[in-house]
Amino acid sequence: MDIAPIAPHHSLQSQVIRERKQALSRFRSSPTLLLTNLIAFKHIRALARRTITNGKLLSWSTFAKSLNYSSSSTDFSNRVGKFKSRSSNSIAGLYSEGAWNSNPSVIPNILAKHFASVSGNDNHSTSQPFSGFAGSTSNPF
Q1: Is pTM beyond 0.70 here?
Q2: What residues contact residue 72 under an 8 Å CB cut-off, 6+ apart?
Q3: Lower CB count within 10 Å: N or C terminus of the chain?
Q4: Half-sphere exposure (CA, 13 Å, Cβ side) for 16?
Q5: To the nearest whole number, what is the mean pLDDT of the chain?
Q6: What's the pLDDT score for residue 87?
Q7: Every domain of the chain and the residues it spans
Q8: What average pLDDT score do residues 101-128 get?
């Protein structure tokens, strides 16, 4: 594989996320120190946001620098999907004829049957081609 792997969460990011969760639980659990805990939580939340953003930026720049002419488009789209927090770029599937189909070789046939059924000449009137417009009683031309 020619594309650099996506960097996992660094220990600093994991630590900051853990501290953010702890600060939130302290804020929720002790109403007597509400203002102090709120301020501490907001500071740690901002630090966590900056740390995560910087980590994503570093990971993206490493990924972009690793692209070259031999990088495949499939790997590229899967990596971009992972950056967007999608596990994989998969076909969701179609529901047709009472069954759920997610097989990539069956889906084009289902779509072809559907488009053939809705675009055939049987579905169009030749006497009044624009009769489907709202409020029209005759041909507008």
Answers
A1: no
A2: 2
A3: C
A4: 19
A5: 75
A6: 59
A7: 11-83, 94-122
A8: 72
